[in-house]
Amino acid sequence: MIDAQALTISLENSILDTIKVIDEGTTKIALVVDGKSIVGVVTDGDIRRHILKGNSLEEPVSKLVSKKPVTIKENTPKEEVLQMMKKFEVKHIPVVNDKDELIGLECLDLLFFTEKIDYPVVLMAGGLGTRLGELTKNKPKPLVELDTQPILEKIIEQFKNQGFWNFHISVNHMANQIIDYFGDGEKWGVKIQYLKEKEKLGTAGALSLLSKKANCPIIVMNADLLTSVKFKHFVDFHFEQDSFASMAVREYEFNVPFGVLNLEQENITNIQEKPSQKFFVNAGIYVLSPQVLDILEPGKHIDMTQLFSKLIEMKKKVVAFPIREYWLDIGQPKDLERAQTDVKKHF
């Protein structure tokens, strides 16, 4: 049982305050209390769905609390706890004392704790990286250094610190440099295999080179991203939404530098001066069900956006996972310069 004190948040606190509680813990939830009594549970997934609806994080957390959660008494046998989790389809159950005061939390992950996460991680490292100019003239972009470490090494360490160990790196441009640097991954305590593209296959086509079909979700990520995303949260969200393929997205705000007109034929009906537009954009991280591999044609070029469009046409369920953590696409020299500063703050 986990002590509840660090996981609690008052009904009057904001959703932004709740995010801090969730991020500082290991359970991906916050326990909402009124005095000493629990009135609700808010999960990481609840907050991401709130973001997708365009709602504010400054709203009170009470907006996310719909009903009082199922609870158990202190010293409830493990078998009974597991039965209740199965019955109510939950991974967490708050623990209360004889006065119905919150004292702790039981978690499915801790009841069946495993140190390693077996989901395969595919890192796309075959790009040319031409936008970084001279920096990638003699080395592949994933080996460009951030604070003395290659970008790709930083990414692998991020995954490893979260329990992931099974890596596949897609390589093409200057592939031998990447293979020589990382080898089989033993130095980092992980396993690394390589997907060697003889021709460029795109950000999804390289998955057709996997030697055997996975029996669990596959995480795919571009090898030029710097992020503090909790990857297991992403996988859990994929399962919670019963998704066939999930795409991490980032909110992007664009300020139009002109007055924008709304027209009905030639008549001006409204003028907005320099409006701000918000969009969700592809963040270059994906969770795919293993059945996605059956759709790919071996050796055929296809990018991830094309794959998702194809899945939508096939009426498969594809969902967006909003990133609220730190995220940066290292595409331009100015992005690399920013990353050099940010890596010391966030990693």
What characteristics describe this protein?
alpha/beta, 30% strand, Spore Coat Polysaccharide Biosynthesis Protein SpsA, Chain A, single chain, CBS-domain, 347 residues, seven-stranded mixed sheet, four-stranded mixed sheet, 2 domains
Report the helical percentage.
Answer: 25-40%
Question: What shape does the CA trace take?
Answer: globular
Supply the number of structural domains: 2
Based on secondary structure, the structural category is alpha/beta
Spatial strand order of the main sheet: 12-11-8-13-18-15-19
- Per CATH, the architecture of the largest domain is Alpha-Beta Complex
Short summary:
The protein has 347 residues and is α/β, with parallel strands linked by helices. It has helices spanning 15-24, 44-52, 78-88, 108-111, 151-161, 175-182, 202-205, 231-240, 304-313, 333-346; strands at residues 2-3, 8-10, 29-34, 37-43, 72-73, 92-96, 102-107, 121-124, 145-146, 149-150, 166-171, 191-196, 218-222, 225-227, 245-255, 259-264, 267-273, 276-288, 318-322, 327-329. It folds into 2 domains: 2-111, CBS-domain, CATH 3.10.580.10; 121-346, Spore Coat Polysaccharide Biosynthesis Protein SpsA, Chain A (Alpha-Beta Complex).
List the topology elements.
Layout: E1 2-3, E2 8-10, H1 15-24, E3 29-34, E4 37-43, H2 44-52, E5 72-73, H3 78-88, E6 92-96, E7 102-107, H4 108-111, E8 121-124, E9 145-146, E10 149-150, H5 151-161, E11 166-171, H6 175-182, E12 191-196, H7 202-205, E13 218-222, E14 225-227, H8 231-240, E15 245-255, E16 259-264, E17 267-273, E18 276-288, H9 304-313, E19 318-322, E20 327-329, H10 333-346
Parallel strand pairs: 2-3, 5-6, 8-11, 8-13, 11-12, 15-19
Antiparallel strand pairs: 1-7, 3-4, 6-7, 9-10, 13-18, 14-20, 15-18, 16-17
